[in-house]
Please model this.
Amino acid sequence: MKFKVAVVGPGAIGTTIAAALHEAGRTPFLCGRTARECLVLNADEGSVRVPGPIEVDPDRAEGPVDLVFLAVKATQVEAAAPWLAALCHEHTVVCVLQNGVEQVPSVAPHVPGSSILPSVVWFPAENQPDGSVRLRAKARLTLPDEASSQLVLEMLSGSRCSVELTSDFTSVAWRKLLQNAAAGLMVLAGRRSGMFHRADIAELTLRYMRECLEVARAEGALLGDEVPQEIVDRFQASPVDMGTSILADRTADRPLEWKTRNAIILNRGQAHFIPTPISAVVVPLLAAASDGPG
Ligand SMILES: NC(=O)c1ccc[n+]([C@@H]2O[C@H](COP(=O)([O-])OP(=O)(O)OC[C@H]3O[C@@H](n4cnc5c(N)ncnc54)[C@H](OP(=O)(O)O)[C@@H]3O)[C@@H](O)[C@H]2O)c1
Model:
């Protein structure tokens, strides 16, 4: 078949990866929910147009591919399952480009037999009102150091997206999850990264991160005492208008990834009998912001 790589979910992250593949001469098959002619990525170095069309009917997939980048939100995996069924066979690698530490258990039931590869996505990308995507930092992924990661390395080699392998994926994934959990505070304040310059928000974030750090360690992550402060420092060093995908979803009144970004830490903390008083406030507020009622 013509396409050996597919991107399912051509949003902010999916467009970035599709553009990286296209620039490297490996234009992917684009699978979405909203029909469009092409994707456009805007980065500091210029724009990339990825030719489409974006297919919206899984029945039009021309058989299995070698590699699927799954870049729908965690809340959209079930709805995207027909794409996975159409694109995957037992040799397909599904690289999940999502936040959280539950990528494998959430996707595996939809692709029995395929290899599911979790990832940590380090770059911020924002959907723009004209349908293009703005990439706000260098594209970078971290993958576990396992055999199926080699295909992703190969497909993205020479592209704008660098790929690192780690033998301790648990620690890297939890480190990123803490950052995502802190970003959830932006939803509750309705503000972008500039809010972390407030002393009271910095203090709250630090306390929240210390609580999350205990849970991460109980889950096997090897993270030092300095991580909470590093996360606060990182937000303070960001442009004041830097958002986060969960804030973009809130602004657009879409469902939020509150379960995979925040509730997971509360739930795992409770399982380990670790006190999580800040999570106990943050999580219900995010859940209500996402799902209502009201
Ligand atoms: N954006 C970031 O800066 C960033 C950074 C790191 C990690 N992440 C994580 O990466 C993941 C993706 O985030 P994102 O910001 O790229 O989300 P996004 O911009 O909302 O993209 C999701 C894409 O999936 C499409 N989609 C939804 N349902 C689908 C279905 N049933 N079949 C096919 N496509 C479907 C959406 O289509 P529509 O156009 O119709 O909505 C959209 O194009 C999330 O887990 C997020 O937390 C994001």
